Amino acid sequence: MTRARSLTTRLALSFALIAGCAFAGVGMYLYQALATQIIERDDAELLRKVTRARAELAERDGSAAERLRELGSVVSGNDEYGLRVRLPDGTLLLATGADAGAIPEVTSLAAGAPIDGNAIQTWSTSHGYPVRGVLMLAGPGQPQVVLYQVAASRLALLRAYRWKVIIAACLGALGAGLLGYAALHAGMAPLRRIAAGTKTVTFSSGALPVDPSELPAELNELAQALQHMIERLRERYERLSQFSADLAHDFRTPIGNLLGQTQVALASDRSADEYQALLASNIEEYERLARMIENMLFLARADNARVALNYVDLDLAVELERQADYFELLADSRQITICVDARGTVFADAFLLRRAIGNLISNAVRYSPAGAQIGLSARQLEGEARIEVSNPGPGIAAEHLPKLFDRFFRGDPARANSLESSGIGLAIVKTIMELHHGTVQAESTPGEMTIFRLVFPERPASP
Predict the structure, then answer these.
(1) Are 20 and 132 in contact (CB under 8 A)?
(2) Cα distances (Å, whole numbers) of residue 223 to 213, 218, 219, 227
(3) Chosen domain end from 158, 184, 199
(4) What is the Cα–Cα distance from 294 to 300, expressed in whole angstroms?
(5) How confident is the model over 105-151, as pLDDT tens digits?
(6) Cβ partners under 8 Å of residue 197, min gap 6
C-alpha cells in the first residue's frame, strides 16, 4: 500500500505549478512584446531604406552603372539587408547583400504608391530564416527592385530570449515550491502540535493539551471542535460504563432470584405443588429477562438505524381510547381512573406510537396514588401533533429531569423498585420520538402533577 503524499508536499507542488504557470504566462507576454517591438523596429528601418532606394531611382543624373552603384549603397554595411534589381524580362541587373532565396511572385508596389507597412511582403529562405521585403517598380517599363531583410540575428536573439524565459520560469517555479514547502512546514507546526496532543488524550484526562488561544485563528475552531468531541466521547464512555454497570445489576437480580430459588428447592424434597409454584415464579423472572432483552435489542437496532417505520395517519382519539382500555384493569386494581380528551390525527408508525404511549401510561399508573385520575389528551396543531399523559403523585425532582430519559436511570439511588421497572421505558420513548423526528418533554412539580408530552411533526423530514 503506497503512502499518501503529505498535505505540505501537495500544497508546495501546487504552489510550484501555479508559480510556473504565472512565470510562463508573463514570459510569453514579454517574449511576444519583445518580438513585436523588434519587428516594428526592423520594419521601420526597412521602410526607411525603401524610401531612400526610391529616391535613388528617381535620380536621373549620371550613368546607369553609377545609379545602380548608388542604389546598392542603400543596403551596404549591413549583412542582413539585400537588394535585387531585375528588368521586366527577368534579367538580373544587381544583386547585393544577403541571400533571400527564391523571391515569391507578388504584386509590386507602383512607383507613386505610398510606402507603409502594407507594402511589406514575407517569405523564408531555404535555411528557414524569415525574410521581410518590399517589391517596387522604378516606373512604367522600368526595372523591378526588391529590398529585403533576412532576420537571422532577430531569430537568434528571440531564440536565446525564449530559452532564458523557460529557464527563468522553471527556476521561479522551483523556488516557489521550495519556499512554499518551507512556509507550509512552518505553518503546519500548530497542526502537528494538535496531533501530538491528541495522541495523549485519554478518557481520564478528557482535555486536549493544547491551548486554543495560542493557535492561529483558522485552527482555533478545529481545536475547539476536537475538545468538544473529546468531551462528548468522554460523556458517552461514562454513560457506557454506567450502562454496563446498570445492565449487570438488573440482570443479576432476576438471575440471582432464579439461582437462589432453584438451589433452595433442590436442597430437599418438595411436593409437586411447591415445584409448580417454583416454576411459576421462575417464569415471571424469565419473562422479565425476556422483556429486558427485547427492549435492549430495540434500542440497539434504533441506534444503528435498523428500525423501519411504517407511517400512517392515525386517529388520536381512537389510539388513546385503545390504550386506556388496555390499562383499564391495571388502573382499576389501584383504584385509578383514566380520562381521554383527544381529537385530530398524527402521522406515525402505529406500533411504535402505541408502545411510547403505553410506556408513559404504565409509569403514570405505577406512580399515581390510589383514587387518582390519569389524563390522556391530544391535539393536532399547526405543523405538529401533541400527546400529553398527566398524573398526580410524588413528582420528579428538578435535578432528575435532565437525566430522566437516559437508559437505566432511576431517581431512586437504591433502585428499590427494580422489580417493577428496568429503567429503559422512558429511554425507549425518547428513541421512538427521535425515529419520528419529534421530541419528548417532561414537566413535574413534586407532590402535585407530572406531565409527559410527545410532539410529532406534521410530516417527518425523512420518513
Answers:
(1) no
(2) 10, 10, 6, 6
(3) 158
(4) 10
(5) 767 777 777 888 888 888 888 888 899 988 887 666 678 888 999 98
(6) 208, 209, 210
- Asked whether 385 and 437 are in contact (CB, 8 A), the reply is no
The closest alpha carbon to 361, from 398, 321, 399, 410, belongs to 321
| Beta-bridge partner residues of 457 | 384
Is 248 in the same domain as 317? Answer: no
315/288 same-domain check: no
Identify the DSSP state of 215.
Answer: S
The enclosing domain of 270 has a CATH number of 1.10.287
Q: Is the Cβ–Cβ distance between 366 and 421 less than 8 Å?
A: yes
pLDDT digits (tens, 9 = 90+) for 39-65: 999 999 999 998 888 888 777 676 777
| 346/330 same-domain check | yes
> Is residue 290 domain-resident?
yes
Residues in Cβ contact with 460 at an 8 Å cutoff, skipping those fewer than 6 apart: 311, 347, 436, 437, 438
Q: Are residues 296 and 325 in the same domain?
A: no
What is the DSSP secondary structure assignment for residue 110, as one 8-state letter? Answer: P
Q: Beta-carbon neighbour count of residue 64 at 10 Å? A: 9
Distance separating alpha carbons of residues 391 and 361, to the nearest angstrom? 9
Beta bridge partners of 86: 92, 144
Q: How far from chain centre, in Å, is Cα 319?
A: 45
This prediction has a pTM of: 0.51
| 381 bridge partner residues | 384
What is the rounded CA–CA span in Å between residue 430 and residue 420? 20
Work out the end-to-end distance of the chain between its first and last CA atoms, rounded to an integer number of angstroms: 41
- What is residue 229's three-state secondary structure? helix
Domain check: are 324 and 396 in the same one? yes
- Containing structural domain, residue 108: 7-158
What Å distances lie between residue 117 and 138, 144, 233, 309, 445, CA to CA? 19, 19, 80, 84, 101
Edge to edge, the sheet with strand 449-457 lists 337-342, 373-381, 384-392, 449-457, 439-444
Number of domains composing the chain: 3
On whether the CB atoms of residues 119 and 32 are closer than 8 A, the answer is no
Residues 297 and 316 in one domain: no
Edge-first strand listing for the sheet containing 81-86: 92-97, 81-86, 144-150, 130-137, 121-124
Same domain? For 316 and 452 the reply is yes
Among 299, 162, 186, residue whose Cα is nearest residue 240: 299
Angle ∠(376,377,381) on CA atoms, nearest 5: 155
Q: Which residue carries 522553471 as its cell?
A: 170
Confidence of residue 415 (pLDDT cuts 50, 70, 90): very low
Query: Which residue, among 84, 82, 75, has the nearest Cα to 131 in the 3D structure?
Result: 82
Relative orientation angle of helices 152-187 and 189-199, to the nearest 10 degrees: 30
